Amino acid sequence: MSVASVGEIVWVLGIVAWYVIRYPFERRAKRVQVVSNARTPSETIGLAAALFGLAILPGFYVATGFPQSADYPARAWSVALGTIIFALALWVFRRSHKELGRNWSITLEIREKHKLVCTGPYALVRHPMYTSFLLMGLGQAFLLSNWVASLAGLIGFAILFFLRVNKEERMMLENFGPQYRTYMERTKRIIPYLY
User: Fold this and answer.
1) Is the domain defined by 3-186 classed in CATH 1.20.120.1630?
2) Stated pTM of the model
């Protein structure tokens, strides 16, 4: 088995694990009443870009090998590093969901009895779910030896993040006021101690 194939298999397993982690939270979230919704067309575009870059385009590449002209030689160190980064992404993703519990939502929503979560990964960054997507994109960049498929995840993440994060923080400020402002002052957005 080639190094490139190992990277592709690890990527596929990572995407399956991502869905396995998310599914039960998605089911539970449907049972909790939404009090406020800040969904916009730009949010839909961001979510679609992330889905396309982190799943659809690389999945198409893994299934078909297209575009083969953008392939480059796979390296064992790159696949090993990508595996570690993707595993870390899944860990952060799971912990973020677990800490949010009934507050979790795929879109910008405030749920009934919504509480500000400041524990677990939320003690270090305000948006660890985005941190997990950033790590997934980085892991994908090291796992897939194709310029188009490998970089699509980071591009998709960036589109989602920059279209959505300011709106999300405004929504949290409107709902939690000074409590959220204090939380913002002691945490970074997605990279602990940096940004």
Assistant:
1) yes
2) 0.94
